[in-house]
Amino acid sequence: MNGERKISVMLVDDQKLMLEGLETLLALRSDLAIVGSAQSGEEALEQLRWVVPDVILMDIRMPGMGGVKATEIIKELYPDMVILILTTFDDDAYIIEALSNGAAGYLLKDIDGVKLVQSIHEALSGNLLLTGKVARKLALNIRNKNSRLDKSCKGFELTQRELDLARLLVEGYNAKEISEKLYLTQGTVKNYLSDIYTKIGTNDRAKAVLLLNRYLSE
To answer: What pLDDT digit, counting tens, does each position of 141-198 carry?
Structure first.
């Protein structure tokens, strides 16, 4: 990576074979570094006392603390942590709950190496990795689970510039892309986004997108 800092990754999966496979796969990448692996949510939290990675690849179903609860606790402790869920096709309910808790998206366990690395980079860029089916379920889940957020939509007003950023955020653009489209520095965009998040009362991108989409539709 020509001296650039590597993306640090922690792997959390109760299947040792899965952990070894991921480690082998990601070790081939010069832009990634495995900084820890755990086989339960409790073990992941223990490791986070010593090392805080850029990205966690999190299994859903594990003995003890599973991925849903672990995601919730980790996001409370480290709001900026990027967590990607590792799952199979039949985990819809778990996926929705984990995304509601702040996960940045989900990956199927049969994902190929190129797509996995691409997904890690996309998540770090601020993109939310969802399919339409899961996005619809997530919207319904958050609307039911956090009805108080619905009421807050009428409790804030955005400036015209904030509206411009909000529309691009809802469309899936990250901070760098927004800065290019609006001819602003990335620092300025991040300041605007911080102000928007403060106004709507959440630092979670998934919830922010859903709230702003609802706000812009009114």
So the answer is: 665 555 544 444 455 788 888 889 988 888 888 888 898 989 988 889 888 988 888 8
Strand segments, DSSP code E, in the chain are 7-12, 32-38, 55-59, 82-87, 105-108
Count: domains in the chain: 2
Among the three residues 140, 166, 193, which one is the final residue of a domain in this structure?
140
Domain boundary among 125, 140, 155: 140
Start-end of H helices in 49-130: 67-77, 92-100, 113-124
Phi, psi values for residue 58, rounded to 5°: -115, 120
Residues in Cβ contact with 126 at an 8 Å cutoff, skipping those fewer than 6 apart: 174, 175, 205
Asked whether residue 34 falls in the same domain as residue 126, the answer is yes
Residue 188 maps to a domain? yes
CA distance 2 to 85: 30
- The whole-angstrom separation of Cα 104 and Cα 144 is 20
* Residues 45, 65, 8: CA angle, nearest 5 degrees: 35
Per DSSP, the residues of 10-30 read: EEE-S-HHHHHHHHHHHHT-T
Query: What are the tens digits of pLDDT across the range 165-177?
Result: 988 888 888 888 8
The angle formed by the CA atoms of residues 56, 58 and 59, to the nearest 5 degrees, is: 165
Q: Is 40 among the domain residues?
A: yes
Alpha-carbon distance 51 to 36, whole Å? 8
